[in-house]
Amino acid sequence: MLLLAIASGFWLQHDQWLDNRWFRSTLINIGLPVSLRDKDWRVIHESVHAQWIVRDDRSRALLIEGRVENLLDSELPPPKIEVTFFDATRPEQVLLSRLQEITLPPTMDAVRHAPFIVPDRDIIPVAERGQRGFILLLESLPEDAGDFALTARAVQRR
Q1: pLDDT in tens, 30-52
Q2: 70: exposed, middle or buried (C-beta count within 10 Å: 0-12, 13-18, 19+)?
Q3: Residue 31 CA to its chain's centroid (Å)
Q4: CB distance 87 to 146 below 8 Å
Q5: What is the pLDDT of residue 152?
Q6: Cα–Cα dist 98/111, whole Å
Q7: pLDDT at 5
Q8: Which residues, including other chains, have CB under 8 Å from residue 152's CB and lie 6 or more apart?
Q9: Rounded alpha-carbon distances, angstroms, from residue 158 to 77, 94, 115
Q10: Residues 6 or more apart from 44 whose CB is under 8 A from it?
Q11: Domains, the chain, ranges and CATH?
Q12: Is residue 101 scored above 90 in pLDDT?
């Protein structure tokens, strides 16, 4: 009877249990299929630095560097980074949103060269509670773009 009460309690509250980072980590570590969630990651906003660079063809591109943190006690594949740009005069209006993969770090020579040849995707898992740096180069942005926001998006295991 006690086992039935525990099982029914878990079943009724399974969404809340799956929101618990410790529980999700345990399920992943024992090999159960658990879908990864965006909230398994955090962009470390104090690590984000952006600068405009002029490239060898005189075009401008935005170079964004930063770090993401794995919030689970399990190895996870690196997330994608969603970059959302807002209008400079109406900050509540979204102008553009791009989903960028974390790649192996490019050299500054490669960044300054146009066209930019995107390095291979970073497929090395991020350690439990670990961090991963990223460098994003964004070309052809709207002229009236003001501020931007970064959000980590979970990549499902294959």
Answers
A1: 988 888 899 999 999 999 999 99
A2: buried
A3: 23
A4: yes
A5: 96
A6: 18
A7: 67
A8: 38, 41, 42, 43, 68, 79, 80, 81, 82
A9: 10, 32, 31
A10: 66, 67, 68, 69, 131
A11: 1-34 (no CATH), 36-153 (2.60.40)
A12: yes
Residues forming beta bridges with residue 152, ordered by sequence position: 81
CA distance 20 to 39: 11
Q: Give CA–CA dist 43/37, Å, rounded.
A: 14
- Pair of tokens at residue 51: 């600068």
Amino acid at 17: W
Pairwise pLDDT comparison (112 vs 158), residue with the higher score: 112
Residue with tokens 């740009």: 85
Structure tokens at 132: 């991963």
Report d(CA 105, CA 135) in Å as an integer. Answer: 7
Whether pLDDT at 87 is above 70: yes
Q: What is the mean pLDDT of the chain?
A: 88
Q: Look up residue 49 and give its two tokens.
A: 């630095």
Long-range contacts of 103-106 (CB under 8 A, 24+ apart): 103/134, 103/135, 105/133, 105/135, 106/135, 106/137
Pairing label, strands 60-70, 41-43:
antiparallel
Mean pLDDT score, 65-73: 96
Is the pLDDT reported for residue 157 higher than 90? no
